Design the sequence.
């Protein structure tokens, strides 16, 4: 009979829990520069966010590939997972909010010009969701690999673009200008797309997969904007209206980012449904 003490002890470094997760590297990646106690929180908070974004990029890439191949069903689980990742990223702001202004100013100078604005992974998520701004590539000119990766995402159809192209292939009358265009430009709403979604929303039994996918996209946009709002409030709470470390106007700059519509016709159609 086995007991709770019957566990494997014959482990090489590679076969162990720590080896599988590369914990030696992961846990040695925090290097505070100020000697202040609270800088560790700041570093871990942002590193955890980057890990969640890495997973989000992995999942969104798979979803885009499925939609491109006209397979919506596998995306439902994937986008449900992305939604939960977004939830985790939203909730973790509460941890950073335990950092008071008095604590933050003690180590803020060591950040120099470093800023979340320079997060290559956050920019990748934005591009994959369709928030395209070519001028932001200049932030990554110093990193050839990051710059090339973002340039590729900028020039490629977003998840929403691929969904509209999928609908067109299924016979929906998606306007031609929305399925063949310069993908590096920000998306512009089209009443023709709203009409397509109106057909889907008024015939949910017939177009259940398309309808479900639409609602998954609405979830993603709502969570994305909620995350941004929480970001604004956290920054406001910690630094007030000081300028951001990356040279931005701080809270004022972040507030402007809240005025965003990733999938505009999915909101517009709600006015049209009777």
Sequence:
């Amino acid at each position: 009979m086995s007991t709770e003490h019957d566990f494997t002890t014959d482990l090489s470094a590679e076969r162990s829990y720590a080896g599988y997760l590369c914990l030696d590297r992961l846990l040695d990646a925090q290097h505070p520069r100020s000697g202040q106690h609270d800088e560790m929180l700041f570093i871990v908070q942002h590193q955890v966010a980057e890990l969640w974004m890495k997973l989000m990029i992995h999942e969104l890439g798979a979803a885009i590939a499925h939609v491109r191949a006209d397979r919506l069903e596998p995306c439902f689980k994937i986008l449900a997972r992305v939604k939960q990742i977004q939830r985790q990223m939203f909730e973790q702001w509460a941890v950073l909010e335990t950092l008071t202004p008095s604590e933050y100013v003690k180590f803020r100078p060591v950040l120099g010009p470093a800023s979340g604005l320079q997060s290559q992974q956050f920019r990748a998520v934005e591009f994959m969701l369709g928030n395209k701004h070519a001028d932001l590539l200049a932030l990554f000119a110093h990193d050839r690999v990051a710059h090339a990766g973002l340039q590729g995402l900028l020039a490629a159809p977003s998840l929403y673009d691929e969904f509209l192209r999928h609908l067109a292939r299924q016979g929906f009358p998606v306007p031609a200008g929305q399925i063949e265009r310069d993908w590096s430009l920000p998306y512009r709403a089209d009443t023709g797309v709203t009409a397509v979604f109106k057909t889907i929303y008024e015939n949910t039994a017939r177009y259940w997969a398309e309808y479900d996918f639409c609602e998954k996209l609405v979830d993603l946009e709502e969570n994305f904007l909620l995350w941004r709002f929480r970001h604004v409030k956290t920054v406001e709470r910690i630094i007030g209206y000081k300028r951001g470390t990356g040279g931005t106007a701080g809270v004022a700059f972040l507030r402007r980012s809240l005025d965003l519509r990733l999938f505009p016709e999915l909101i517009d159609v709600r006015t049209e449904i009777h």
User: Anything to note?
Assistant: Residues 208-239 form the longest helix (32 residues).
